[in-house]
Amino acid sequence: xxxxxxxxxxxxxxxxxxxxxxxxxxxxxxxxxxxxxxxxxxxxxxxxxxxxxxxxxxxxxxxxxxxxxxxxxxxxxxxxxxxxxxxxxxxxxxxxxxxxxxxxxxxxxxxxxxxxxxxxxxxxxxxxxxxxxxxxxxxxxxxxxxxxxxxxxxxxxxxxxxxxxxxxxxxxxxxxxxxxxxxxxxxxxxxxxxxxxxxxxxxxxxxxxxxxxxxxxxxxxxxxxxxxxxxxxxxxxxxxxxxxxxxxxxxxxxxxxxxxxxxxxx
Length: 266
Hints:
The protein has nine helices and two strands. A hairpin with a 2-residue loop joins strand 1 and strand 2. A two-stranded antiparallel sheet has the order 1-2. Helix 4 (36-85) packs antiparallel against helix 5. The chain folds into two domains: 3-52, no CATH class; 61-265, Up-down Bundle (Ferritin). 26% of the residues are buried. The longest helix has 50 residues, at 36-85. It has helices spanning 3-13, 17-20, 24-32, 36-85, 93-119, 143-164, 172-195, 242-247, 255-262; strands spanning 226-227, 230-231. By secondary structure, it is mainly alpha-helical. Residues 21-28 and 36-57 have low confidence and may be disordered. Pfam families: Ferritin_2.
């Protein structure tokens, strides 16, 4: 058995394998001090421990993130399904057509996430029961309230996926799935915002003064004008205002922030 050959093969699929193993020397230095027979006997146990350390926690975290995303997609699919079924709510044919397509997109996202979780030997969470009238009593009778929540959900989706991207950086397949969904959520958000006569992008938290207080957590942190170590507003020579600086970048939402938003409807 050539353990280094095995690691080199893994490296073809995971270029950062040595970093995960805390370097080649750190991972195997103790094996070198053992007798040959002892080392061979210990090899399977040692390998199991090493790879569990390297990949076990990562897979668990990926599954947690995927189920986190699945809950948000369940929320959106359920919201549009119920809204489309509400009598007299969406009467404009163009708007109904748009929301029917958005609902189908969200349903496809649910199916893709479930399949991805199962392919990783994980268990998809069951669909929760949502109560959209918990804090918005007229959500399915007042079209403007429905539009407001649609905007809030789509804006949340964009920022939520961005918030978890860094945690998926070592899994190209799952990251690709997340980014595919993220880009569609951004298109949904822009379309719904235009339906409300808003800009297609967020210009700071104050840009959403027409959103009820209960939905304001969706826009937490959007006043940020710092990207990395650069203050975009101070680049006066480029003509950047605070509105341009905040509108040019979406800020990520943490899992805790998204959980707070979702809790408004559970």
